[in-house]
Give the backbone structure.
Amino acid sequence: MTKAVILTVLLAGLIVFGTSAPAWGAQLDSRINPNNDESPFKIGYLKTVFVEYPNGGVLYDTLAGSEWKTSGEADATNPDVQKLMIQLNEGIQQDGSQARISDLNVLYEFQLKGRNLQTSIDYRVILEGTISNYVITEDSQKKLVDLGWRGLSTKSPVEIDGVEINIPLDILQTEEPILYNTFVNTEAESVLNRELINADFILEQPLTNWHFLFDPTGINADASTFGLDDEIAGFVVSSWTMGESSIREGRQVERVFEAEVMADQHYTVRSVQSTDTANLFLIGFGALDVLDGIEIAGVTPTPPEDYMTTSTGDFPVLIIYGMAGMAAIAGIGFFIVSSRSMKKQAVGQQGIDPSNLVGYQTSASSGGYQTNRGEAQLKSDADYNQTRSVYEESAEVSPQETVPEQTTPSTTEEAACGCAASAEIGTECDCAMHGSCLCDATCNCGADICKEHVREMS
């Protein structure tokens, strides 16, 4: 019993962790071509801050019903964007990677929406640019590609045209000064000072835990019909995907930080940043390795001979096909057994054969009409004794019930007598009970009122 409970709990946990699909905190997408000096990348950072005021107060008076949005965009010609590129490249270098960001565009959007019980502030920053210097070495057979640059993070303040985009608390100083003054120098300040531009988890999750697939459609002459550029013709496309929460990849949960503030009323501040996800696409077949503590991929134009893989990286496709074949065989066997079982079942009439039944009329005349009620009984008494009701058996052995004396009518014409039904079952004549006779001159009923009625008719 205990083992069954434990297995049930584990199974429920796998279902919850394996099927959850939250909104992502940091989402990276990059397509690297080892044959080019630069390749594009795009990464987005999302975070939501909730300010709760269930008891009202100054913050309720200030925020309830209010709504505003601040957004902007800048490219690499902006000095603030150039400064951000320097900060990101310093972080990449500290991670041990030699790759560099050579171009960058910044898009940011902050939105506040006040409600009766709480206010939500959504932060979104998107960085889009190019990465370069990612090829470590190359020869005639393969190239080594640096993949250790993917943790694009900075802990320093980042201002774009006078708007702070990395520290959530700083923008409140401009847009909501009352809210800012309520939280500064409190526990809420530590919650709201956590940087938004943070993709450390994408770097910390080893690429060996990511799902790996390679797409051979790049070798087709009509690769452009699949949305692939003609320049990759002759190569396969390798891809690594991160973001699943499971036993192999590890449990991934939302990063929630919460603090309570006691001012004029009790307030709660909660910062929510969901799990990260990433997609890395590499032109060619990539085999993972580690060089000086940095994850790299050895890239060849085609996969090794007879190489087949699935998303797990090492699970042979042949085994998957074998399991599918076994399932198909089991399904066919199930249908064969079911078909044989149905053929063994009796076909046609079930129960008593109608040819062994005979009908008997059970109605009698009453006055000038007669019904057509009847019942069916078995022709053979032996068969009837085998199938008769148990209630009839109990009735036969009942000592309190006596068999009434039946009066057999002398002629067939008595069937038309209104009193015949009562006479046949040995009870007092209906005519005597009603004080009148419904019989004609041919009735031989023994009731006095019927006899008198017959003499009068004679």
